Amino acid sequence: MGDTPAPAEEYDVLYCVAERQPREGAGPLPAHPQHDGETLEHRHQVSDRRNSNERGSDTSSGRGEPGVHDANRRRRRGRLSRVGGRSERGVFFGTGAPTYGDPLGEVLAYHAENRGAVAVSVGLEAVKLPLLLLFVTGLHGLVQRRGGAGADWSRLAVAAGATLSAVFALFQTTHIAVVLAADGLAEPTPAFELVWQLHAAAFALALPALGATFIGAALATHASGLTRPWQRLLGVAGGSLLILAGAGNLAIADGSPLLFVGVAGFAAWLVWLVVTGLRLIRGQG
Fold first, then answer.
1. Which of 47, 110, 243, 278 is 20 to 30 A off residue 250, Cα-Cα?
2. Can you tell me the distance from the alpha carbon of 169 to that of 210, in angstroms, rounded to the nearest whole number?
């Protein structure tokens, strides 16, 4: 009995074809041509599997089909903007909220599972809007009572604050619509995608309105002697960053890392509010 091994290929099991000896007095055994056919077919399967593995490695590295490359690039861009988006939008939504660069499936799942948390966030935002208007209006009156120096800048702060409140109202209205639309949906629909895009556009357009409010308030308080020079510089720099980020509103609404510029301006706004508020409460300036 002799064994004739077939050529071994990568990732495969070695096949052996055995030839049996005929018994005495018996005729020759019939030929088995299927062995040769199986061996040839097996080689084709090995070649196809190797080619498939090579294509898979190219696709995973972004060198495959153009559609896959674009999807990988979009995922990388979403990861870059994820930290910045959640840092700023977490103030309104809470931690773990999806960014505008995340897939719609994740957006739908988040709002379907966290309806209560989003409801609390939207309710708090309804309280923040009148507080913002009260702040800029009171600031304008304080500047007027101190001789009117910086009154023009305080008027800018009031007008920009009113615009910001209107944009934020649209921002939260579309957010409520997203939550309501997510209830009962198994997968995103074109209507759901449209509402989410409107929500993203409202957020991006709120950035320059906040920047104008910041600059007007910072210059008005400094001109009337209420704040120190470094607070004016902080206001102008932070407000300029917000306006600069708002100029790229289309890219931000699409999940661009340009949102990091707006995050820096928003952080400066929070610092200025805390420092200026404590200074006014203590009666300094």
1. 110
2. 14
Query: Contact 203/90 with Cβ under 8 angstroms?
Result: no
> And the tokens for 47?
């070649």
Q: What are the percentages of helix, strand and coil residues in the chain, rounded to 5?
A: 75, 5, 25
Look at the block and give the residue holding tokens 């510029």.
261
Phi, psi of 2 (to 5 degrees): -120, 140
Per the CB < 8 A criterion, the answer to whether 8 and 14 are in contact is yes
Please give the DSSP secondary-structure letter assigned to residue 255.
T
Residue in the block written with tokens 């062995």: 35
Strands 2-5 and 16-19: antiparallel
Q: DSSP states of 193-218 as a string?
A: HHHHHHHHHHHHHHHHHHHHHHHHHH
Kindly provide the b/e burial profile for residues 189-211, where b requires at least 16 CB atoms within 10 angstroms of the residue's own CB.
Answer: eeebeebbebbbbbbbbbbbbbb
Amino acid of residue 276: T
Q: Does the global pTM surpass 0.85?
A: no
Give the alpha-carbon dihedral of 189, 194, 198, 203, to 10 degrees. Answer: 40
pLDDT tens-place string over residues 229-250: 999 999 999 999 999 999 999 9
Cα 33 from Cα 19, distance rounded (Å):
12
pLDDT tens, position by position, 21-37: 445 554 554 454 444 44
* Band of pLDDT at residue 186, cut at 50, 70 and 90: confident
Q: Are 199 and 170 in contact (CB under 8 A)?
A: no
Give the span between the Cα atoms of 246 and 258, in whole angstroms: 9
Domain map (residue ranges) of the chain: 103-281
